[in-house]
Amino acid sequence: MADTSEAPRLTFRSYKSDYKPVWCPGCGDFSVLNSILKALTELQVKPEDTAIISGIGCSSRIPAYTSVYGFHGVHGRALALASGLKLARPDLTVLATGGDGDGFSIGGNHFMHACRRNVDMTYIVMDNQVYGMTKGQASPTTAPEWEGSKLTPQGTGINPFQPLAIALAAGANFIGRGFAADQNGVAKLITEGVRHPGFSFIQVLSPCVTFRPEQRDWRDIVRPAPVEPTSNLSTAGKRLMGDDGFNTGVLFIGNRPSYVAESGGGTDLAEIEKSFAL
User: Fold this and answer.
1) CATH entry, 27-258, from 1.10.1760.20, 3.40.50.970, 3.40.50.880, 2.60.40.1930
2) How does pLDDT run across 123-160, given as a tens digit for each residue?
């Protein structure tokens, strides 16, 4: 007789590892980790069918704090690794996590081309506008007048990187922004991003209370976007270019088909070796 019993529902604990996070007390990344675990619980994807890929930085520690498959790669290369994994194993749910330094500085080229390729995966960036792990230098998203770093005591004088607008221009299929303290809101964004086909980019404003204590004020500044999500590129472009960086929610939903690797009939290694023979 066939077994008709249903598998037990996976819980928050099903996705959580026994490792204790080592972030600074008050770091927004604690909340983002919980949001990711809540999203996986809502999605009910099996831990063994899920992978989280990260680069370097405080937020890139996240794979170790989950029970799913994880890979802690080198600086700026999380999206290259995640793209390769998803193309090789399209059956997996693949997420990439990182920070603004990892994703938009050394990883900036990979970010743009990941948006362009539109592989079906979700990229979660914890943006605190500072390099927290390496003692508080200005990052690509730091305001030009910020004087909190000893390396740039008079500010950088450089306009900040605009990740959402660049993601839109490069071709991301789903764009959203959340605030770390709103765990349920960020979990909902991640859930929607995973379910939406193609490359989903979610910026999470995640305060660094150690090097940017003024970011505690973000709680009083962030608010839901006053407009509904749009699939119109022109409309989304105008909104994002005029955005002050504190509107949250789904900001763009595209309809481009995901990039899928062509499946071949296998490769004969001996034939490849012959082509390189001298």
Assistant:
1) 3.40.50.970
2) 999 999 998 888 888 899 998 898 888 888 888 898 99
Domain ranges of the chain: 27-258
pLDDT band for position 267 (50/70/90)? low
**Overall residue count recorded for the chain in this entry:** 278
Say yes or no to pLDDT of 64 above 70: yes
Neighbours of 185 (CB within 10 A): 20
Q: What is the dihedral of CA 256, 126, 192, 174, to 10 degrees?
A: -20
Dihedral in degrees, nearest 10, Cα atoms 75, 73, 267, 93: -110
